[in-house]
Amino acid sequence: MIVPAVALRAPSSAGLPALLLRPWREEDVPALVEACRDPAMRRWIHQRADDGAEGLRWLEEQRRGWASGVRFAFAVLEEEAAASRRLVGNAVLKMPRPDAPSSEVGYWTTAHARGRGVAPRALEALTAWAFDTFAASGLERLDLFHQLANEASCRVAEKCGYPLHTTVPASPPAHPAPGHLHVRRLAALDPAVPDPRTGCR
C-alpha cells in the first residue's frame, strides 16, 4: 500500500497553539539536533541525532520508512503562524508490514514544549489517521510501549485511550529496560474504547 505524505492537524487547546504534523524535512534537522541535546530526551530515546550529519541520516531513514510503507514519522510543529512554526515533537507509526493487524506508535516532545499538551494532542491526531488509513487493510490495534520509569509517557497513553495492557521485560536493543505496553483497539471491535476521532478522554 502506497501512502502519500500527509499533513495532520490537532486543534488548539486551552489557549495553546494548534499543532501541525507533517513528514520530516531537511529544514528540520537543526531543530532535531537541538532537541536531542536535552538530557531527558537522551534518557528515553535510543535513536538520536547528535550533529547535522547524523540528523541527515536520521531524516533519510524516515524517508525510507514512508517509501516502504512501514514507518511514518511526523515532525510536530506549533502553528502560531506559518512563518514561525517551531518544532515541538515527533510522532511515529511503526508497522511490521502494510497489512499488519497491530502496529506501534511512539512520540517525544522537545524540552521547551513540555507541559503544553503536545504529546496527547499529537498522539490523538496520529491515532485517528492510523485507523482511518489502515483499518480497511486489517489494522485492529495500536501498541504503545514506554519504560517503567517514564511516568509522563504513561499518563499520556492513558489520557488518550491507551489503557495499560501488560508489563513487559526488557528486550534489548529495541527495549533496553522493562516497560509498560498500552493498547488501543479500533472502536468498532471494542466498544469500551473511545472512537479515535472523539479526542482524548
Would you write up a description of this structure?
Helices cover about 30% and strands about 25% of the residues. It has about 200 residues and is an alpha+beta fold. The chain has an eight-stranded mixed sheet, sandwiched between helices.
Helix content: 25-40%
CATH superfamily: Gcn5-related N-acetyltransferase (GNAT)
Number of domains: 1
Side by side, the strands of the main sheet go 1-2-3-4-5-6-8-7
The average pLDDT value, as a whole number, equals 88
Number of helices, where a helix is a run of at least 4 consecutive DSSP H or I residues: 5
H and E string:
EEHHHEEEHEHEE
CATH topology: Aminopeptidase
Distance between the termini: 31 Å
Known CATH architecture: 3-Layer(aba) Sandwich
* Unreliable spans: 193-199
Radius of gyration: 16 Å
Alpha-beta content class: alpha+beta
Shape: globular
Supply the key terms.
201 residues; alpha+beta; Aminopeptidase; eight-stranded mixed sheet; 5 helices; 8 strands; globular
Helix/strand layout:
Elements: E1 8-10, E2 19-23, H1 29-35, H2 39-44, H3 52-68, E3 71-78, E4 86-94, E5 102-109, H4 118-134, E6 141-147, H5 151-159, E7 164-168, E8 179-185
Parallel strand pairs: 5-6
Antiparallel strand pairs: 1-2, 2-3, 3-4, 4-5, 6-8, 7-8
Summarize the structure.
The protein is α+β, with helices and mostly antiparallel strands and 201 residues long.
